[in-house]
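Dock adenosine-5'-triphosphate; give full complex structure.
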Amino acid sequence: MSYLVLARKYRPQKFAEVVGQTHIVKTLINALKLNKLSHALLFSGIKGTGKTTIARIVAKALNCQNLQEGYEPCNECLHCKEINKGIFVDVLEIDAASNRGIDQIRELIENLKYAPVKGKAKVYIIDEAHMLTKEASNALLKSLEEPPRHVYFILATTEPNKLPPTILSRCQRYDFRRLDTKTVMRYLKRICEGENYLIEDSALELIVKEAQGSVRDALSLLDQAMAYGVKTREDVVVALGWHEDSLLEDLAVILLEKNLREAMEFSTHLYERGIDLLHLMEKLTEFFRNLFLAKALHKEFNFEIYNSKLKELYVVTSLEEILLIFQTLLRDLEVLRRSSYPQLQFELTLAKICEYEKLIPLREILQKLEGLSSKAELLFLTSEEISTKPKDWENFLKSLKGDYPSLYQILEKLPEPEINSQDVVITVKGEENTLIDTYLPLLKEKIEKYFHKTLKLHRETLKEFSPEEIKTRPEVQAIIKEFSAKIAYIEPYKGVEP
Ligand SMILES: Nc1ncnc2c1ncn2[C@@H]1O[C@H](COP(=O)(O)OP(=O)(O)OP(=O)(O)O)[C@@H](O)[C@H]1O
Ligand SMILES: [Mg+2]
Ligand SMILES: [Zn+2]
């Protein structure tokens, strides 16, 4: 006998066998009992969570010749058996993703008017419903609205947002949830018992985590693990090639050890394996966040580390150090999102973290040098020359450019500010007043940090517009038009003082 994959062997045949999704199962059974089941159902949710499975059980419940208690199909009668084999004439599964989709829909609509051939109800299960062509969904619409009494439609999709609103509004919607870790864990354990397969809990945990709430994924990973004879957690890592968690932990070790060479090799290795770097970086950031919280909150924060080397490093690394890595990752994550060179950017981030210590003293040295040189200059420059240091302003702008491009653009257009011994005096006029106000707190902070001076705004008096002039300005006209509004009163703008 050929080997039956676990997902098929253990496909639930009746409601009671479905794992999780209790809200859905309950509602469906109730509707069946009261004979109030909607004729157009939409099952949406992530892959492998029971959409097709439950659709088939509903089809059986509607056609079973010997319904059991709780509206369960008997799975023994001819109808149930034929539905299980997929050969029952009145239950039709259509894969909207295949070319045959539209032809089948046309044929289906043609045949709707005829009573069921054998059973009590005709059930059409339309899988991947979001893939229906426009013509096909148009053809479906009318039938969905007023299906004949003996007809039921069950649309299944992983991407309900891709369905036209006209279809959505005609269906009663059931949202299939990811199954939680505990539930999947319990289920896998039960299956391993059923299969007489011995495996450590920690190994199953890894599989469950990787499956991310999809029962089918959990079962096929278990299939693979069994094929390798996996027993322990390490076995899983080896047998299944890579696992996100172990990958993250390995990477965390490299970063905490500040091993630049290994970091670069690791990065190349990831790239060659076609691993999604952005996703990994997101996970890595989250990982360091958890590491930080675990360290900061001690035992209150439940976070498990499996890698023994990482466990040691975690103990000896300071909280500040972990925070610094977390911050760098978080900041660079944004950059990576926008980068056209993800691999280079990813490497740069790893390199930065590994080389912190070399970078930080260098920065301190630079700062000291800067301090020295400005003191030296003091000896030679006249007071007038000291009051404006255009070079510094330029550098200040440069330092903003990357992180705050909009602020940079505003400042760049302003006349060079006057920098005296205590203040940085920026002159703004007209519209610049409003623009700069949006950024005032930020700008104030940045200037204080960079120059160790306070920000002073010199606002050149606004040109006074007469009420008539204001009313005719294009932006005012546009607002009036857009909102069909009237001007109630006009108040002069006073600006905000820092
Ligand atoms: N809730 C569940 N309870 C028990 N087993 C499940 C459940 N969901 C999925 N499975 C297992 O996964 C297999 C696939 O499930 P099913 O075909 O119902 O997924 P689906 O939600 O239709 O996924 P897809 O979106 O990929 O079509 C089933 O054969 C079954 O073994
Ligand atoms: Mg399916
Ligand atoms: Zn039956």
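Observed: The domain at 244-357 is CATH 1.20.272.10 (Zinc Finger, Delta Prime; domain 3).
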